[in-house]
Write a structure and sequence with these properties.
Elements: E1 2-7, E2 11-17, E3 22-24, E4 33-34, E5 37-40, E6 44-46, H1 49-54, E7 64-65, H2 68-73, E8 85-87, E9 93-95, H3 96-108, H4 110-115, E10 120-125, H5 131-144, E11 150-154, H6 155-163, E12 172-178, E13 183-189, E14 197-204, H7 208-222, H8 225-237, H9 239-253, E15 258-263, E16 266-271, H10 272-296, E17 304-308, H11 315-327, E18 331-334, H12 335-338, H13 343-348, E19 366-374, E20 382-385, E21 388-392, E22 398-403, E23 409-412, E24 423-426, E25 432-437, E26 441-447, E27 453-459, E28 473-479, E29 482-487, E30 492-497, E31 502-507, E32 514-517, E33 522-526, E34 530-535, E35 543-546, E36 551-556, E37 561-566, E38 569-576, E39 579-587, E40 591-597, E41 604-609, E42 614-619, E43 625-630, E44 639-642, E45 648-652, E46 656-662
Parallel strand pairs: 1-10, 10-11, 12-17, 17-18
Antiparallel strand pairs: 1-2, 2-3, 2-4, 5-6, 5-7, 8-9, 12-13, 13-14, 15-16, 19-46, 20-21, 21-22, 22-23, 24-25, 25-26, 26-27, 28-29, 29-30, 30-31, 32-33, 33-34, 34-35, 36-37, 37-38, 38-39, 40-41, 41-42, 42-43, 44-45, 45-46
């Protein structure tokens, strides 16, 4: 069974191909459903009938969002569509991919109950969408219906495939789809065998919504001072009323020379001639695109122009396209009158089975591979090494899992037992591994590219007499050749240069929970009340940054920066030998674990937003959001581990370890 879904600017439609012929799919008794999203604080986003039923309730004002598809289209060079967020008028954000997924899920959850699980999903998109825009559909489909193959087809091609059997055999024909958010144009040619083939396509991000915006501008220009104040107030509190009325007036002007824009107490007359003059530049832009195609295809011009889309009902659009068709000696037909249901969804079902699979990711993905490894017990030491993860198994055996670079991990053969180890860390390169025993004594290992240890030495001034334990190592850090540790959760510890066997005592004013080298010359100590920053050369009194529990901290040593997630905020700091310099500060309603990485040499902070259920990637020097990764289908982490592999972070959940990868450089 094949399922096709056409997500439009204001509504979505679906179609099924089960046995013989494709058929439109009714959901909730309707052939289409609204793509308006309603933000329910308890259940997340809803779409379909529920938002429509609640639309008039004052208590829900500002929790609706229309034009979700247009958020994919909108020009925004700073943020790729895959990483964008939907912002609701009353506050609250949700990932754009999650919003598209909710619209898809409205169809996908209804289909299995009635017909079974689809074998294939086909999604349509405007001709002009790039790979990064199409990636939103692929990501949303993967979350809504995991494991089902996805195919993509342009809206114009889908209409053309559906119309092929209804047009004269032989030659070529054109599809002109004037939708709410885009104009799609395609010329298809009949084949002796197989479906029609696209020989030319193009488009513009011009559609019915732009016509509505022109109409609203006319209304404002015609309004007096009092009417203008009321229009402004409505635009602030209930903008959907203005958009809905503009669409109704536009439709009325297709039948009459004038129409009345009536909202609340407003009654403003709009003239068809003025409206057509306002939209003429947009229509002529679309006409120019068609003219360019006809000049290139003069040897085999299309014999038919098939018009479709809601904006194709506008008389000026019909007149301009009819004039072009007459010049090409082509027939003009209204494709929507030929077939009930969605031409796009029905035609999408006819895309060849062997059509190339879409690119699964955008050019610079922020990927999340869930459940790449079953998480060891909560108290088991775990650390990231180059090419994978290392931890101690229940029998004191060193376990290394190798990452193949795609999110698939497999265990490396166990080679060495290290009994008595209580803490573990990797050095800055990720090739060296240190395991601490209660003596304290330390086993220093070197790992090869396969994750196997090639050499190991035991180091420690009490290593020869382990019965004389001076404490259990509870904080451990390694930056070759330096090794630092504290014991029994206390304030005292040691710093040693392993290469020179040079020992120095460490003392902090409070018990230390965690140690991290911030590069070769600085050591960061995490306590219950804040962070201590110590210059490892001078060991002078460390600088202190007071913080309130709970908080998470991560260090990016190559840039000597740190990120702190605490108390509804996340902040970035430059680490200097003499203290902390705050670089940026941004709100985070319910922050979770944080980690740092450097894809393409660009320092980046990855923080888990527990409130919104997303990983956010922030520039380490400015805090600007570069990307986000939805984790709606995965459990949030309680700790993250930066990998020596650039751009890779591992997230540890109660049951599994997930793998995040951010490619760079990121805009």
């Amino acid at each position: 069974m094949i399922l096709a879904v056409d997500i439009g600017a204001s509504s979505a439609k679906a179609a099924l191909w089960r046995r013989k012929d494709p058929a439109a799919l009714d959901i909730d008794g309707e052939s289409q459903w609204s793509t308006t999203l309603f933000l329910d604080r308890g259940r997340g986003m809803l779409t379909g009938v529920a938002p429509e039923n609640l639309a008039g309730a004052p208590r829900y004002r500002g929790r609706y969002l229309v034009g979700v598809k247009q958020q994919v289209n909108k020009p925004d060079p700073a943020t790729e569509p895959l990483y964008r967020e939907l912002r609701f008028p009353a506050g609250g954000t949700e990932p754009l991919v999650r919003g598209i997924g909710v619209i898809l899920a409205h169809a996908l959850t209804a289909v299995p109950k009635r017909f079974g699980r689809p074998d294939r999903l086909v999604l349509s998109h405007p001709v002009v969408w790039t790979d990064t825009e199409k990636a939103v559909l692929v990501e949303a489909a993967a979350a809504a219906l995991p494991g089902v193959p996805v195919a993509l087809v342009s809206e114009a091609e889908a209409v053309g495939l559906h119309m092929a059997s209804r047009l004269p055999a032989g030659g070529s024909y054109a599809v002109l789809d004037f939708g709410a958010s885009s104009f799609d144009f395609a010329v298809l040619r009949h084949q002796e065998q197989g479906p029609a083939r696209v020989v030319y396509d193009g488009g513009r991000l011009i559609g019915g919504d732009d016509f509505d915006a022109c109409l609203l501008n006319l209304v404002r220009e015609s309004a007096d001072a009092g009417e203008l104040r009321e229009l402004t107030e409505i635009a602030t509190t209930e903008p959907e009323l203005l958009r809905a009325e503009a669409e109704q007036v536009k439709k009325a002007l297709s039948e009459s020379d004038e129409a009345v824009f009536a909202v609340r107490s407003l009654e403003i007359v709009v003239d068809r001639g003025e409206f057509e003059a306002a939209i003429a530049p947009l229509v002529l832009t679309c006409r120019t695109l068609v003219e360019e195609a006809l000049s290139l295809l003069h040897a085999d011009p299309p014999h038919t122009f098939a018009l479709t889309g809601g904006a194709a009902r506008v008389p000026l659009v019909r007149a301009q396209m009819a004039e072009l068709a007459a010049g090409a000696e082509a027939k003009v037909i209204d494709a929507q009158q030929e077939t009930p249901g969605s031409l796009v969804a029905l035609g999408a079902l006819r895309i060849p089975v062997d059509a190339p699979a879409p690119r699964v990711r955008a050019a610079r993905p922020f990927t999340l591979a869930p459940e790449v490894m079953k998480a060891p017990a909560a108290r088991t030491p775990l650390t990231a090494v180059r090419g994978g993860l290392a931890f101690l198994g229940p029998d004191a055996g060193l376990q290394v899992w190798r990452d193949d670079g795609t999110g698939t991990m497999s265990p490396v053969a166990q080679r060495r037992k290290v009994p008595g180890s209580v803490a573990m860390t990797a050095d800055g390169t990720g090739r060296g591994l240190v395991l601490a025993s209660p003596s304290p004594a330390f086993t220093l290992m070197e790992l090869n590219t396969r994750g196997e240890d090639t050499a190991a030495t035991v180091f420690g001034h009490l290593a020869a007499t382990p019965s004389r334990s001076e404490g259990r190592v509870t904080a451990l850090a390694h930056w070759s050749p330096l090794l630092a540790w504290c014991v029994d959760g206390g304030p005292d510890g040691s710093l040693v240069d392993v290469s020179a066997d040079h020992w120095r005592p460490l003392h902090f004013d409070e018990p230390v929970a965690e140690l991290t080298f911030a590069g070769p010359g600085m050591l960061l100590a995490r306590t219950a009340t804040g962070l201590f920053l110590l210059d490892t050369h001078s060991l002078r009194r460390p600088a202190f940054l007071p913080l309130s529990e709970p908080f998470s901290v991560a260090v990016e040593p190559s840039s000597a920066t740190a990120a702190v997630s605490a108390a509804g905020t996340v902040s970035g700091y430059a680490l200097r030998p003499d203290g902390f310099e705050r670089l940026w500060h941004r709100p985070l309603k319910d922050g979770g674990p944080v980690a740092c990485t450097a894809p393409g040499g660009q320092p980046v902070v990855i923080v888990f937003d527990t409130h919104d259920g997303v990983y956010r990637a922030l520039a380490a020097d400015t805090g600007r959001q570069l990307a986000l990764r939805d984790t709606a289908t995965s459990t949030g982490p309680h700790r993250m581990y930066p990998s020596p592999d650039a751009g890779v972070v591992y997230a540890r959940t109660p049951g599994f370890v997930h793998r995040l990868r951010l490619e760079g450089p990121v805009r």
